From TrEMBL, chain A:
<dbReference type="InterPro" id="IPR000515">
    <property type="entry name" value="MetI-like"/>
</dbReference>
<keyword id="KW-0812">Transmembrane</keyword>
<dbReference type="InterPro" id="IPR051204">
    <property type="entry name" value="ABC_transp_perm/SBD"/>
</dbReference>
<feature type="transmembrane region" description="Helical">
    <location>
        <begin position="196"/>
        <end position="221"/>
    </location>
</feature>
<dbReference type="InterPro" id="IPR035906">
    <property type="entry name" value="MetI-like_sf"/>
</dbReference>
UniProtKB/TrEMBL annotation, chain B:
<keyword id="KW-0547">Nucleotide-binding</keyword>
<comment type="similarity">
    <text>Belongs to the ABC transporter superfamily.</text>
</comment>
<dbReference type="GO" id="GO:0015418">
    <property type="term" value="F:ABC-type quaternary ammonium compound transporting activity"/>
</dbReference>
<dbReference type="Pfam" id="PF00005">
    <property type="entry name" value="ABC_tran"/>
</dbReference>
<dbReference type="InterPro" id="IPR003439">
    <property type="entry name" value="ABC_transporter-like_ATP-bd"/>
</dbReference>
From TrEMBL, chain C:
<dbReference type="GO" id="GO:0043190">
    <property type="term" value="C:ATP-binding cassette (ABC) transporter complex"/>
</dbReference>
<feature type="domain" description="ABC-type glycine betaine transport system substrate-binding">
    <location>
        <begin position="189"/>
        <end position="314"/>
    </location>
</feature>
<dbReference type="InterPro" id="IPR007210">
    <property type="entry name" value="ABC_Gly_betaine_transp_sub-bd"/>
</dbReference>
<feature type="signal peptide">
    <location>
        <begin position="1"/>
        <end position="22"/>
    </location>
</feature>
<dbReference type="GO" id="GO:0022857">
    <property type="term" value="F:transmembrane transporter activity"/>
</dbReference>
From TrEMBL, chain D:
<dbReference type="Pfam" id="PF00528">
    <property type="entry name" value="BPD_transp_1"/>
</dbReference>
<keyword id="KW-0813">Transport</keyword>
<dbReference type="GO" id="GO:0005886">
    <property type="term" value="C:plasma membrane"/>
</dbReference>
<keyword id="KW-0472">Membrane</keyword>
<keyword id="KW-0812">Transmembrane</keyword>
Amino acid sequence: MSVDVLPLDASSSPLAFWSYFLDHRSTDLGWLWDHTWLSVVPVVVGLVLALPLGWLARRHAWVYPPMMSVTGLLYTIPSIALFVLIPPLFGLSVLSPLQVPIALSVYSTSLLVRVVADGLAAVPSETVQAATALGYRPLARFTRVELPIAVPVITAGLRVAIVANVSIVAVAGTIGLDNLGRLFDQGFTLSVNEPYYPPIVLGIVLCVLLALVLDAVVLVVDRLLTPWRRAVAAR
Amino acid sequence: MIRFDAATKRYPDGTVAVDQLTLEAPSGAITVLVGPSGCGKTTSLRMVNRMIEPTSGTVWLDDTDTASLPAHELRRRIGYVIQNAGLFPHRTVLDNVATVPLLLGEDRRRARASALELVERVGLDPALAKRYPAQLSGGQQQRVGVARALAADPPVMLMDEPFSAVDPVVREQLQDEFLRLQGELGKTIVFVTHDIDEAIKLGDQVAVLRVGGTLAQLATPAELLARPIDAFVAGFVGRDRGYRALAFAHGRNLPVREEPTVAVGSSHPGSAAGLAGWILAVDAERRPQGWLPTADELDETVTDSRLHRGGTLATQGGALRSALDACLSSPSGRGVVVDDDGRLLGSVTAREVLELIEERER
Amino acid sequence: MKTTTLIAAAAATVLTLGGVSACGSSSSDSGSGSGGTVASGLIFGGPAEFKTRTDGIPGLQKTYGVKFAKYTVTDTGGPVTVGALKRGQIDAADLFTTDPSIEANDFVVLEDPKSNFKAQNIVPIINKTKATDGTKQVLNAIQAKLTTDGLGALLDKIQNDKEDPDAVAKEWLDDQDLDGAGTLAKGVSLTVGSANFPENVVLADIYADALSNQGATVTKKLNIGSREKYYPALKSGSLDLFPEYTGTILAYLDATSTVSTPDDVYAALAKALPANLVALDKADAEDSDAVVVTKQTAEKYDLKSIADLARTAK
Amino acid sequence: MIGSVLGWLLDPEHWRSTPFDTGIWAQLGAHVGFTLIALAIAVLLALPAGLVIGHTGRGSWLVSAANAVRALPTVGVLVLLVVVISPHFYGRTNAGFLIPTEIVLVVLAVPPILSNAYAGVQNVPPQVRDAAFGMGMTGPQVLGRVELPNALPLIFSGFRSAMLQVIATATIASYVTLGGLGRFIYDGLAQKDYPQMIGGAVLVAALALISDLLVALVQRYAVSRGVSRRFRTDTGPDSRTAVLVEEDVR
């Protein structure tokens, strides 16, 4: 264990968040990292699950309404309840770090299934017919024609999901799971007699920065995947 | 009467859409603004109801400077029809048509009643009145658009490419219907199109605009075809304008000759001797049905399936263009001329039509 | 009818902004002139589990005949409870005896002569496989030096001076001459956990730092929420060491237990723990639940002990 | 597990309030109350703003700004506001906690309502707007009689999304001592009463579902068939445009 007797910082001004960060750098960076992967992994899992499900909902019209009802229903379960419900359902230990990513994957999948289905629905039917006429088989047509065209809609959904996740992960911090939400709990606990802002403000600042950075990453990926849109925009 | 007086539209970035346009659209007539894209024809039109405000110059509506009225009051006096109709998706056909009367404060029941009349007047089934625009075809929507513009009985109508989003067959129907309606109503109309054929067909006068928003030529369609003022207008009016000009030359003194016929369904063809290979088949009302080759077995019954139907028909009193076309499209070389009810009058040859044209040019 | 109930409830709970009125206790200021007890005019605030715990509301009623007008769920001796009590949203609260905010706000701790609350001595609960002689020696040495007042002082540094719990822990070890480097715990690798309140965190830091100084490989998993979250982890072996309180852990393991003195509780705890867990020495330091009121309330009703709450209001 | 949850839900004792235990009816009422207050404020703020921004095309940065607000962590903002606001309220009032909670819920509800109202007006086909002006409607008439009715499907979808988020998020009111259905979740957790906790979660989900159905019903009657395209002859899927309206945290 590192021997770090930390300098005392008693300033409770909201602007003291930076020196608070410097004082607790290693812990805070650890929580930032936890927060990051907890936000990202579920979106990746959600996308991987949502692609086939969304395709199915698009392919068979009768699948769409029930699938949207189920995903919509899952989305209404409050995250705090889901965090607590998941361990017994999945046979995990109560403290398992997996409960948050699993719960968030449920949300991300719910959100993205609709996005994928609607994104595929937005592919012009002439394009699909042209691809079929050119001899694409269904799978190749899906991966090489329909999916690329649906990318803008899907990335729009990904941006929403990832930003939402950053906020939901913080909720898990209040029940003691490691991430930036812990800063809120800390700040709250230390605000017994008078407000102690630095950890709270630091938490908000880091969460917002993280959300913005992750959002930007998705945006960059979107740009890379759809060069034709840049060509149109540059004209 | 609508008068543009040095009307100019210059945008902040310096582009000039309409440059010093001076033009009069006489009352009761159709004035068509035509030109390539970027010529400012739509901008000019929209300056009339101030959807676009002129940068300088004046647009007069009879003796009123349009700038002197509040824009929305001005617009309620002017019918406005646009491409794709711009119908309100959330209102039924009837309520779309009743829009302006309701805006003018007319009582709802009366507005609807007169709207229903108008729906019929533009040639729509009144059963469609309760439908929503999304349930109509493009042509039907366009008719509703016209009905809506007519609802408050405005003396002036502005029409911005109203028929360009429908297929050619429907477009022609709409154009004919429009001319019929204008024959009854006699509105003062400014009509924008990029289609020179439409301009020539519909316009009492046609204003050709060139890119940059200047007026190239204002003339009647016949004059425009006959005497384009410069190379731009000539190029825009098109290569076969000499032939198209025949559409404005009447065929009253066409030397129509009697044409031997056989009746469809008869087995005795009558005398086919001396005919150059083809005989005209008619029905019981003497309406031409098609040509029968004389080389065929003439004693067999004349049936529909044996007829050549290539020829077009000309009407006596119609344009020379249709007469010449009837000759050129007929397998026998003899153009069939009918009366207004479609009954056979006789035939004419291309040579005879050309002689008539030459005679007139002299 | 149900709609009416709903609307009425919505209005009552949201719009009156009141934590009151559910049973018509008009306000604590007017007292209840109708001859009720002092408590029947007061609103009590505390954690949700205090409502059902044997030594919570049921215990207060059974032992002292105290019945409050209403119960408002706040938090577990945290900022919400303190703030609500300070600002008059509630009149009496469940706080912990070591809480420095009691002194800071001039709150009055009501005596508990009939020992309704179980003894709450600090006790390390450790996984048997990690309880080597060396680790026992290190931890028991700490236990011997922990006092209630000392704990309050540590907490004050964290809560009011905003010092880092780990720094406070190191400072304390230094003050107590317990920070010497050594090899007593060499070769032991363990994970130390704590609940998410400062006192528990600083205790875990003290244990962890001392063991680390003595050569153990220590992983900290601090600020884990409530007992419901961390106890299963402790039991299953993903946590090895946890600072606990004899009374609450006993109540958690055996809800029916009625013992309350320090030694009885400690003895009962030893029996109640599962085979893989063991309790080391209990410290003198105690952090027990207490019924706390503001100074004004105490003076107004002349309150010294919990029993006074059951008197007829004047 | 399911049986004990059902048992908890079906026990009439749990629906009634006592001085010590607020029953399901009362907490449901409180939850609905929090939600209605937040939605009412959010609609009053965001709907006119979104409509006007969409109509004039000016101030669209406000929509982007509101969307950026989604990046704020809900819990963090709640804690911050409680710490700032609650010390100013004394006596028998929960205003010190209610106000922060409502602010958080309003902040959550504004972006979807605002951006969908904006997008709804923006999505009105330009020729429809052109025709409306061309027929002599004034700006407010165009907005009220043409743009608003055509934007309704998107406005409703934004409202529904906001409502679901608010209902789900109102549970964290209980994190700062307020009532609402979150009470059962937090109390159940603290009291190791898992049927109560899951029952609370089920109630929240049910409330969300039923509210959504009710609003869907209102939408059916409020939106012109010409816009929703629910024609009797049309057997195609519901054409409600599901614009991304970004659910957030609960």
